[in-house]
Amino acid sequence: MKSLTSKLIKTVGYIIQYGCVVHCVSKYLGDIVMCSGRSMEPTVYSDDIVFIEHLSPRFRYISRGDVIIAKCPTNPKQYICKRVVGLPGDKIKTGFTTSQTVPPAHVWLEGDNRENSSDSRAYGPVPLGLICSRAMFVIWPFKHIGSFV
Amino acid sequence: MVSNFIKSIIIGLPIGVTFLDLIGYVARVDGISMQPVLNPDKSQTDYVFLNRWAVRSLDIKRGEIISLISPKDPDQTIIKRVVGIPGDIISTIGYKREVVRIPEGHCWVEGDHTGHSVDSNHFGPVSLGLITAKASCIVWPPSRWQYIRSFLPESRVPLNVISQVMASV
């Protein structure tokens, strides 16, 4: 009986330990996520599984053309996958004659599928603090593997 | 002996980091923007416990003090009081519009020290996704040990809340 209890405690301890390691890796290094939605076609198709890394946003190493994952400005529980089109200070054409300058510490995000994407054209520049990670490549399904960046 | 020590660090570090991420951590408050609740006296700085568990679902309430990533500088964390939640109508102090309706997924934050605080009156509504924690108590110096209670000055209550109260009277 006693050995069973100690075994149980040991197992729970191991689960907590490995849970913490997994948490740290997936939060600070890299992770895999499934992207649903058609806003990034033809780069990422709906339900593709993508490898993401957290280092470049952490060290503010974001450049134009990167595909990033950010918290949605209008719904913080949802994540969006978009392409960085404008960096602070860039002038973005928003209409036929109108344009907007991206303010400091913000980026301009747009989906590759411009007809079917709610992005900075709808909610304006996105603060850098909302960017969580950079998408690196598609790992699943096979036919899309490594098909971007 | 040494390998044991290294081993315990390798095991302990992720546990510690996870604890700080999920439960909370202690941080120093800089500046005068939250006077008189935090840093009332220039000579000493307060340390507050930032509760991350309390904001895990992001259901913040008016009057709470929260910490958030500054929309002006992502490397800086600022500490402010929540004045308006999504849907509220705020009468602003020196913002480009006199009355603002808080859009979905945003909130209105202000420092208590009006005029000495860079807050929503300067940069507008902030996205809820920038919120990192809720300040729940002052832990240092010992003479200032206390829970931080939720409080909203009457003059800063959102207009839609005032009209609700009026209607119920």
Automatic annotation (TrEMBL), chain A:
Gene3D superfamilies: Umud Fragment, subunit A. The keyword Cell wall biogenesis/degradation does not apply. Its EC number is 3.4.21.-. GO terms for cellular component: mitochondrial inner membrane peptidase complex. Residues 10-93, 97-140 form the Peptidase S26 domain. One of its GO terms (biological process) is protein processing involved in protein targeting to mitochondrion. Keywords: Hydrolase, Membrane, Mitochondrion, Mitochondrion inner membrane, Protease. The active site is at S39, K82. It is found in: Mitochondrion inner membrane. InterPro entries: LexA/Signal_pep-like_sf, Mito_IMP1_subunit, Pept_S26A_signal_pept_1, Peptidase_S26. One of its GO terms (molecular function) is serine-type endopeptidase activity. It comes from the Eukaryota. It holds the Pfam family Peptidase_S26. Heterodimer of 2 subunits, IMMPL1 and IMMPL2. Belongs to the peptidase S26 family. IMP1 subfamily. This is Mitochondrial inner membrane protease subunit.
TrEMBL record, chain B:
It is a single-pass membrane protein. GO terms for cellular component: mitochondrial inner membrane peptidase complex. GO terms for biological process: protein processing involved in protein targeting to mitochondrion; signal peptide processing. Keywords: Hydrolase, Membrane, Mitochondrion, Mitochondrion inner membrane, Protease, Transmembrane, Transmembrane helix. Its main location: mitochondrion. The chain crosses the membrane at residues 6-27. One of its GO terms (molecular function) is serine-type endopeptidase activity. Residues 4-91, 100-140 form the Peptidase S26 domain. It comes from the Eukaryota. SUPFAM superfamilies: LexA/Signal peptidase. It is found in: Mitochondrion inner membrane. InterPro entries: IMP2, LexA/Signal_pep-like_sf, Pept_S26A_signal_pept_1, Peptidase_S26. The active site is at S33, K80. Heterodimer of 2 subunits, IMMPL1 and IMMPL2. Belongs to the peptidase S26 family. IMP2 subfamily. This is Mitochondrial inner membrane protease subunit 2. It comes from Photinus pyralis (Common eastern firefly).
